[in-house]
Design the sequence.
């Protein structure tokens, strides 16, 4: 086995065991498209969206990490990504299309369902509380939530429930 292949196998094993998962490993080794979203060397300019995602676990804020969609090594970034741990999702695409919360969670390498969202897990028999722009979301699959410019998306377990803060959009 070539030394470079051994290093990739070891790094893949470390990422998988650390919870970073296959998506991060794919990002590290060639930035494969995820849900049709490419990882390009430059940000796209046809569509530019900023949305704010907030997570709360029984009233306590949970961080949406910096660097989601920006692979290790920084040779590219996915059209959908975060720069800071402030919950601002940046979408900079070379063409207009509808983007969903499910795509963002896939790029993050995290689960999204009615009962789980990344590190959040609803109590047994319960569902997550989800709101979009302050209105309760009543849909079936949160993966289908469209991401629009300057939109506030809040996902919570509870009670108690957290008090969302307005996003500071760039």
Sequence:
């Amino acid at each position: 086995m070539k030394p470079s292949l051994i290093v990739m196998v070891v790094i893949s094993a470390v990422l998988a065991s650390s919870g970073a998962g296959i998506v991060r490993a794919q990002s590290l080794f060639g930035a494969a498209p995820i849900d049709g979203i490419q990882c390009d060397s430059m940000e796209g300019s046809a569509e530019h969206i900023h949305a704010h995602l907030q997570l709360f676990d029984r009233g306590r804020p949970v961080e949406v990490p910096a660097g989601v969609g920006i692979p290790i090594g920084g040779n590219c970034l996915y059209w959908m990504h975060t720069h800071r741990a402030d919950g601002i999702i940046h979408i900079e695409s070379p063409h207009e299309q509808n983007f969903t919360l499910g795509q963002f969670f896939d790029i993050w390498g995290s689960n999204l369902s009615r009962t789980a969202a990344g590190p959040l897990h609803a109590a047994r028999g319960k569902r997550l509380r989800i709101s979009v722009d302050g209105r309760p979301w009543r849909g079936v699959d949160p993966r289908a939530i469209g991401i629009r410019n300057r939109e506030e998306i809040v996902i919570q377990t509870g009670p108690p429930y957290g008090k969302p803060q307005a996003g500071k959009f760039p």
In short: The two ends are 47 Å apart (CA to CA). The helical segments are 3-17, 21-28, 101-108. The longest strand covers residues 47-57. The mean pLDDT is 85.
